[in-house]
Design brief:
The protein is of the alpha/beta class. It contains nine helices and ten strands.
Length: 266
């Protein structure tokens, strides 16, 4: 993503009809330790990709993976939608904001079919271990199998709008099937705290008294915390006909079961 020439060759050789730019340094915690790398890959990398598209496949439909981290602690009536002001609170967030405006400017300047999908947290059993959802479900599975005695976490009171990644990928595809390019918030409209995620995960594993297994580590708290993110996907509901299918409880159960089964087989 930091090599524009290689991206130009890739687009020129493949001549795609649709491009989905999901590439990023996407771990918010790491963005504080690697702000320059995060900006180069996540921000300028998106510019490199859309410029390669303009040059060699300007009729291709382009999807940019944007994020709820754009909003930071900006809050309008308790939810965030396409009209909510952006106030990113991390290097990852402001890198994604750069990418958002790059895509929007190319759409308006060059009449390209380019969309930003402002996706709230989307999870599955394939989530990386460094993310809090998978850190919790894998940690619970390890405790279940006697491979660990504790899980270290940061702020248990942070609230997120968590959905199933499979549902959100469908929304990405739907954006590129429309007659005109637009930006969309994709979210469930429901929030759950990290504490609730932890409690449900332990319950799914049949483990009671979860507090004895969880340690709150101050070193894991972000320098600038985003306390609550809750999306309003009304626009996507109305225009794309999209609604999430998997509930939060089903998502947590699926992830915990997957990790327990995986470790059991190992």
């Amino acid at each position: 993503m930091t090599d524009p020439i290689s991206l130009m060759h890739a687009v020129k050789d493949s001549q795609p009809e649709e491009i989905y730019n999901l590439a990023a340094q996407s771990y918010v915690g790491a963005s504080w330790r690697q702000p320059h790398l995060t900006t180069a890959v996540t921000g300028v990398g998106a510019l490199n990709m859309i410029e390669a598209t303009r040059e060699y496949a300007n009729k291709a439909k382009f999807y940019q993976a944007s994020t709820s981290e754009l909003f930071g602690n900006s809050n309008t009536n308790g939810t965030q939608n396409e009209n909510t002001p952006f106030e990113p609170r991390s290097p990852y967030g402001f890198a994604k904001l750069y990418a958002f405006h790059a895509i929007k400017n190319y759409r308006e300047s060059y009449n390209m079919f380019a969309c930003n999908g402002i996706l709230f947290n989307h999870e599955s059993e394939r989530r990386g271990m460094e993310f809090v959802t998978r850190k919790v479900t894998n940690g619970v599975a390890m405790i279940k199998h006697g491979l660990a005695k504790e899980i270290k976490l940061g702020n248990l009171d942070s609230k997120r709008d968590w959905g199933f990644a499979g549902d959100y990928v469908e929304a990405m595809w739907l954006m590129l099937q429309q007659q005109k390019p637009e930006d969309f918030v994709i979210a469930t409209g429901q929030t759950h705290s990290v504490r609730e995620l932890v409690e449900k995960s332990f319950n799914c594993a049949g483990i009671k008294d979860w507090e004895q297994y969880v340690i709150v580590d101050p070193n894991l708290v972000r320098p600038a915390e985003v306390f609550t993110l809750k999306g309003d996907a009304s626009k996507a509901n109305n225009i794309l006909g999209w609604k999430p299918k998997m509930t939060f409880d089903q998502l947590v159960e699926s992830m915990v079961k997957s990790d327990i089964d995986r470790l059991g087989k190992a």
